[in-house]
Amino acid sequence: MRRITLVRHGYAAPHAEGGDYVRPLEDRGRREVTRTAMALLTRVGAPSMILASTAVRTTQTAILLNERLSAPEATLPIVFERSLYHADWSHLLEVLQASDGAMPHLLLVGHNPGISDLALRWSRHFPEYADFQGFGTAGWCSATFATAAADLSGLSAPLGVFFSRAPS
What is the pLDDT of residues 72-116, one digit of tens each? Predict the structure, then answer.
């Protein structure tokens, strides 16, 4: 059994000197991410590892999640990957499939539209989420898959899924 959790970054500044890549989280975004961390702990538990885009807002989201989700004696491993910046759903899936098979619960922090598009593919397997239209900031979903630890090729059809917000 394998769990994958997708999280969209928190609310970020609308503009930043230096462009989109360097837009930081605003206070609202930090509050959203803190609420997301608490919901994750309650609903699905802490992940084994965090994967995140290297953009400032996703980096800040991943670090904040790590602070809130880690046990006091140890922080979670975080892997920052430049290719996740505005990656499409198929690239996100490839990165997940290439990730460490020994990690039973991966959390990926990314950007729209790619992160929502991947979640949308998973939501179509479940009538209660059939009208999912995408994540707002700090939105998330968590899915379980029947796949051996070393074989992540089956990450397209989840056994179960939970979305943080009611479908829109």
Answer: 777 889 999 999 999 999 999 999 988 877 789 999 999 999 999
**pLDDT digits 0-9 by tens, 15-35:** 999 999 999 999 999 999 999
* 105: β partners: 3
Could you tell me the domains of the chain?
2-163 (3.40.50.1240)
Whole-angstrom Cα distance, residue 149 to residue 102?
6
* The token pair that represents 109 in the structure block: 């922090």
Residues 6+ apart with CB under 8 A from 42: none
Nearest to 67 by CA among 75, 78, 56: 75
Backbone φ and ψ for 71, nearest 5 degrees, come out as -70, 150
pTM over 0.90? The answer is yes
User: How far apart (Å, rounded) are the C-alpha atoms in residues 72 and 64?
Assistant: 14
